[in-house]
Amino acid sequence: MATKLKKLVSDLSYIGPKRVMRGDLSDAHLEGVVFAPTGRTSVPTVIVIPDWLTPVGAYHELARHLASWGMACVVPKLKNNGLNDAADMTEQVAALVQTLRGVQLGNGTAQLDGDKVALLGHGLGGAVVAETAAKGVPLKAVVAAYPTEASPSPLEYTVRATVPALVITPEFPPLLSVDVSEDFAHSWGASVVMRKVPGCTRMGMTGNSLLERFGLSETNDKKPLRAQTALMTGYLWYQLTGEKDFKGFAALDSDIAGTEVVLTEQQENDDAAPKRSKRPFARLVR
């Protein structure tokens, strides 16, 4: 099993085997892009919720990657009425989930499976993920990558979440935002896996950090970013399809190259608790 997981991590680090088509959300009267594998069967859907001030185009590479592995990836352009306002964005995402049920793309060459939807929230999008998951929107799972504080606070909703979550926490405390990833995972109301990816940051999530935008970065090491992409792809595919070979992406004890598990307080307590003996009770005889 460990060998199979290692190969999957390696494979998922790169573009997948599926041919990918690109479209927009104009038929749904929305702004944004859709990347989907070609074919006439319904495919699971991932909705990417962008970070504050991060353009939709910054997620094209990630969306194409997910689509190449069999998932339609929708990146909507959401309206944000305030600096850290997540409430209005949550309403838009909830409406989008309903709108995308059964939607056909490319004259029927690709169809979204409305019963297999996951959210991937980045930064402020992570706060939107929490509120959406707590409001009963039909989801299979969520990924919260470097979730930040917002209004209302995502920590008001995490305890009421009922779907599995992968939380990606930064290696070091950020300088320009209030990271809530650890408290986010500690209070999540359903099964949760928290991992950090050394070498990756919130601003570098899209593969285009602030330093790189201004040509000031001296590193071209894409290895950590590939590990992060493989982690998210494998986790989402397992939660959306239940394919057993991918179960390790949702397990706390899996060794996923380039990533490290961070246990929540509850998981630490469970791990420290004495294991119950598996020996059957002896039968009482006269």
UniProtKB/TrEMBL annotation:
InterPro entries per record: AB_hydrolase_fold, Dienelactn_hydro
GO molecular function term, any single one: hydrolase activity
One Pfam family it belongs to: DLH
Signal peptide: none
Top-level taxon of origin: Bacteria
Biased composition (Basic residues): 275-286
Domain Dienelactone hydrolase residue range list: 31-169
Region named Disordered: 266-286
SUPFAM superfamilies per the UniProt record, alphabetical: alpha/beta-Hydrolases
PANTHER family in alphabetical order: CARBOXYLESTERASE TYPE B DOMAIN-CONTAINING PROTEIN, CHLOROPHYLLASE-2, CHLOROPLASTIC
Protein name per Swiss-Prot or TrEMBL: Dienelactone hydrolase domain-containing protein
Species annotation: Lawsonella clevelandensis
Origin organism lineage: Bacteria, Bacillati, Actinomycetota, Actinomycetes, Mycobacteriales
